[in-house]
Amino acid sequence: MTEMDDRTIQRDRMRFIKNTASSSLAILGILFNVFYFVSIYQSDVGTYYYKILIGVSIVYNLIFMLAVFLSSEGVKNYQKNYSYLLAVIGIGQIVRVFILPMQAHSATTMVGGAEVLVMGGGQFAWTVGCLLISAVCLLASAVINLVKCKELADHMKTLEANKA
């Protein structure tokens, strides 16, 4: 069996198997987002986090998880449009680094009569890392799915051409 035959068989198998690589990366993106928001929401630094921004963040996280889970199911079935959604959400994760973590890292608040940092360096690094890893997972999921969708579409065209 030649290398070309192996590649043809691999492409043909794509018609019958799921795109688990893209799907798993999307789920991993959700997991790192969960680590991020658990780190933020478990912080107890007075009343700093009792703002509308946290309410918006909670709603965004719910929508994020629903959209990414839906996208993980879509890319599992080689649906190209979900790649674009994952890419937009991945870029959104990068933008989120500059919203809540940056603001909290540079802020202080009064707790028990003493001024304390809202988010220390360790927590800041952890939350930024979680958001960036989540973004990388989502972007990689999108790219892998786009590549596989193109391969499958090309293979299907070849099969149709051979039929005729």
Topology:
Blueprint: H1 3-13, H2 20-41, H3 52-76, H4 81-97, H5 100-105, E1 108-111, E2 114-117, H6 121-163
Antiparallel strand pairs: 1-2
Task: Walk me through this protein's architecture.
It is a single chain. The two termini are 26 Å apart. The chain has helices spanning 3-13, 20-41, 52-76, 81-97, 100-105, 121-163, and strands at 108-111, 114-117. It is mainly α and 164 residues long. It contains 6 helices and 2 strands, in the order αααααββα. The model has no long low-confidence stretch (mean pLDDT 90).
In short, what is this structure?
The chain has six helices and two strands. With 164 residues, it is mainly alpha-helical. The protein has one domain (19-163).
Keywords:
164 residues; 6 helices; 5% strand; elongated; mainly alpha; two-stranded antiparallel ribbon
Which value, in Å, is the CA radius of gyration? 21 Å
Estimate what percentage of residues fall within beta strands.
Answer: under 5%
Low-confidence stretches: none
With strands numbered from the N-terminus, the spatial order across the biggest sheet is: 1-2
Note the gap between the termini: 26 Å
Any idea how many domains?
1
Form type: elongated
Largest sheet: 2 strands, antiparallel
Our count of helices gives 6
Mean of the pLDDT scores? Answer: 90
Oligomer: single chain
Helix/strand structural class: mainly alpha
Order of helices and strands: HHHHHEEH
